[in-house]
Please model this.
Amino acid sequence: MTFYVTFGQKSPFRNGWVEVEAKDYQSARDIINYAIGPWYSNIFNTAEFDGAIKSFLSRGKLGETLK
Model:
């Protein structure tokens, strides 16, 4: 599954997202915590992200997909 990690407005990564490939939400959370620590705002699945969030993030995808 693909998950999308977003960041708060004070983050240098604001207005963008990081993709994470994982088997479930908890695994995605573990991957992002290992990669950057707890310095993110939210994790969304594809339906949540494509439905409302993606259109607000003008910087687009940041970096490579984490696995």
Observations:
- The chain has a mean pLDDT of 95.
- The radius of gyration is 11 Å.
